[in-house]
Amino acid sequence: MDLPRCAARLAPLAAALAVAGCANVPNPFGGAGAAAPAPAGTEAPAAAPPAAPATLPEVPGAAPAARTAVLGSTYAIDGAIMPVMRGQQLTETRADMRRNDGVLSFDNRLLRSFAGDTRSSDITRLDRKLVWTQNIAKKTYTECPLTGCPRPAQPQQPDKPKPEQPAKPAEPSCPLVLKKNDLKVVATGERKAIGAFNSERFQLAWVLELEDPQGRRNSNRVQLDLWTTPEVGAVKEVQAITQAFQARHAAAVSAGGEHPFGKYLPKEVTGSMGALLRNLGGANAKTTAAWGNELKKVRGYPMAMTLAWTADGNACGDDASAARGNTSAPSVGSLLGGLLGGGGGDGKPAGAAGGPLLSYSYEVKTLEVKPVSDGWFMPDAGFQRAQ
Questions:
Q1: What number of CA atoms fall less than 13 Å from residue 64's CA on the CB side?
Q2: In a 3-state reduction of DSSP, which class is residue 86?
Q3: 20 to 30 A Cα–Cα from 300, which one of 215, 309, 382, 383?
Q4: CB–CB of 199/168 below 8 Å?
Q5: Could you tell me the pTM of the whole model?
Q6: By the 8 A CB rule, do 242 and 93 touch?
Q7: Nearest to 199 by CA among 106, 113, 299
């Protein structure tokens, strides 16, 4: 499961603007999002009409066409340092090709003014071993291998004198020891209809605790609520087509194993939580295997989900080495940086006082298998290849 590319691209911008937007810092253009006042004695210009909200495209079914899994969904991402991002996504999948179209919106007015056109579109063709990424606003597209386009060669720099080798870093003065790393799955027995699909609820709870030599602990809790529907009829067919594509794609790009939550969450979300496991050393493989057994309790196809990640604790909080980042485990802020595209933290558990570090919700709106035009898996008519 992937978020639209624009969501991943705009995450660092969201983080940069969230401090101003979420803290109600006055808009630099005047007031709390208002236009700057007109000079005395002049008439204020008329306000521009609001732009029409972007919408997802209509999926064509004209011949030549073939049966295709079509999935429409909505999602929202929020958190301690993230403004609210809401999105819609439409995905059409065959065994050897997939198209994703998305629209992203922001509750924060300042962020909306910087975001520009938030429509996104990409087409993956396993049969051609390439990906087309479309710029809807400019009506252009790029073409890259499945593994991504190579980065432009950097100009060669003249040789510089090599600096003296730095001293070997000292051992962490405040080592943290893993004390708890548990995942539990509970079938609640609750049931409800999501659209035309009867669904049941499963709760997944992950708790990870680290302890310093003074007995102080940092605790991370991830709560994932899943509503799933039986894999029969159209759901079973969509699942089979999707799994066939994912298996071929993984083989084509030589993808390794994923985070156990990756079956349900976008990689941008699991990438943030994955930092927790990456710092557990040799216990990772054993932990992942245990998780796999626990996750077998979940039945059905995910139709809706909500996730909340919270953290608290003061392990190594008073050590001078912690202030310099000289500990054996990452801070909560640096873990969240994986989601935001690289930003770090100050070592404090940012979500302890202000709610979840990260929250994510998702719901399927349409799910069907129907004929989709072959041309839908080519760059849109009138689009030019970007050089």
A1: 3
A2: strand
A3: 309
A4: no
A5: 0.74
A6: yes
A7: 299
Contact 20, 110 (CB under 8 A): yes
Contact 374, 64 (CB under 8 A): yes
Amino acid, single-letter form, for residue 374 = D
Looking only at the bridges linking them, the beta strands covering 140-145 and 384-385 are: parallel
In b/e form, how buried is each residue of 317-355, taking b as 16+ CB within 10 angstroms? bebeebeeebbbbbbbbbbbbbbbbebebebebbbbeee
Average pLDDT over the chain reads: 77
Round to whole Å and give the CA distance between 97 and 127. 7
- Which distant-in-sequence residues (6+ apart) come within 8 Å of 222 by Cβ? 204, 205, 206, 261, 273, 307, 308, 309
Q: How many CB atoms lie within 10 A of CB 110?
A: 20
- Classify each residue of 69-106 as buried b or exposed e, where b means 16 or more C-beta atoms within 10 Å of its C-beta: bbbbbebbbbbbbbbbbebbbbbbbbbbbbbbbbbbbb
Amino acid at 318: D
Q: Computed over its alpha carbons, how large is the radius of gyration of the chain?
A: 24
Amino acid at 86: R
Report the pLDDT value the prediction gives residue 303, as an integer from 0 to 100.
97
> Mind listing the pLDDT tens digit for each residue in 257-299?
565 666 777 766 666 555 555 555 445 667 777 888 888 999 9
Give me 354's structure tokens.
């202000």
> How far separated are the first and last CA of the chain, in Å rounded?
29
Which has the closest alpha carbon to 317: 213, 224, 191?
A: 213
